Amino acid sequence: MGEDYPRTLLEFERRFAGDQGCREYLFALRWPEGFACPRCGAREAWQTRRGLWVCKRCRHQTSVTAGTIFQDGRLPLVLWFRAMWYITSQKSGVSAMAVQRILGLGSYQTAWVWLHKLRRAMVRPGRERLAGRVEVDETYVGGEEAGVVGRRTFRKRVVMVAAEEDGAGIGRIRMNRVLDLSRRSLHGFIQRTVEPGSVVVTDGLSNYEGLQGYRHEPIVVAHHRSTASQLLPRVHMAVSLMKRWLVGTLHGGVQARHLDYYLDEFAFRFNRRTSASRGKLFYRLVQQAVQIGPHPYRRIVGNPTDGG
């Protein structure tokens, strides 16, 4: 299929005017080499009048949306596609209220859940880890806490940030919430997000010490005239933009249990910030949406009162 995607809004509307066009697009992205039975892997199948695919070998029935985030959806695929186009065409992201208004959805909660499902699709399965020279630091997300000194926190969420060097600029980033600043948490984040053998630049926090499999370059801020933001400029810039985004787009209303998914959305947008085509971002999101499993409503909802 290659990178086949609409370049303009008019092209998008013509191509995805009905569910059939949406299903054909999902089929091509899910099975680029042709149909493959999810149960036995056989390639031959026939299609029923209801749009189901029946495997000729094991007779297993499936649909193009089964096993994806679109599974069990009651609303037309056309609305899902419009949501994905709108979300990826807005450089700064969108709120659930905006999605509800643009799509004419009867429920704010539906828009909220859709956004959370799509945020789960913003992390590509098996994505490559950061490599080269990578800055790593921690930050906190949450309101001010009275009586808290230094790195201690009682209610704020601890977020780890990694940013690749790209000349004088920033390459790709990764962001994840961690439980604490223990050695296990810090090293675990680096191992999950940075390719072994890379140069990892951190501040002088002692729990970064003993990092195995990397060239560790700690910078003790107290030994320099420069500030932490000058010594680790890339992660500090990424953190500043992320916090501004949380406040500006989501108005700061992010619950702790959902924070990682908002961080995933920010990283998805940041890592594709130089893309000249918003249609390509739409393509990437749909492509990844058919690669991840379903996320049932009850698992996501919890208490959907945040501003996302």
Give me the secondary-structure topology.
Layout: H1 9-15, H2 19-30, E1 45-47, E2 53-55, E3 61-62, H3 77-89, H4 96-103, H5 108-120, E4 133-141, E5 157-166, E6 169-178, H6 183-193, E7 199-203, E8 215-219, H7 228-231, H8 233-250, H9 259-271, H10 278-289, H11 297-301
Parallel strand pairs: 4-7, 7-8
Antiparallel strand pairs: 1-2, 2-3, 4-5, 5-6
In short:
This protein has 308 residues and is an alpha/beta fold. Helices cover 38% and strands 15% of the residues.
Tell me what you see in this structure.
The protein has 308 residues and is of the alpha/beta class. The chain has two domains: 105 residues, no CATH class; 122 residues, Ribonuclease H-like superfamily/Ribonuclease H (Nucleotidyltransferase, domain 5). The protein is built from eleven helices and eight strands. It has a five-stranded mixed β-sheet, with helices on both faces. A three-stranded antiparallel β-sheet has the order 1-2-3, with no helix packed on it. β5 and β6 form a beta hairpin. α3 crosses α10 and α4 packs across α5. The model has no long low-confidence stretch (mean pLDDT 89).
- Please give the domain count: 2
The description of the largest β-sheet is: 5 strands, mixed
CATH architecture of the largest domain: 2-Layer Sandwich
Write the element-wise H/E pattern from the N-terminal end onward.
Answer: HHEEEHHHEEEHEEHHHHH
Helix residue percentage = 25-40%
Shape: globular
CA distance, first residue to last residue: 34 Å
The top level CATH class name of the largest domain:
Alpha Beta
- Secondary-structure class: alpha/beta
- Strand-residue fraction? 15-25%
Number of strands: 8
How large is the count of helical segments?
11
Radius of gyration over C-alpha positions, nearest whole angstrom: 22 Å
Task: Could you tell me the CATH topology label of the largest domain.
Answer: Nucleotidyltransferase, domain 5
- Identify the CATH homologous superfamily of the largest domain: Ribonuclease H-like superfamily/Ribonuclease H
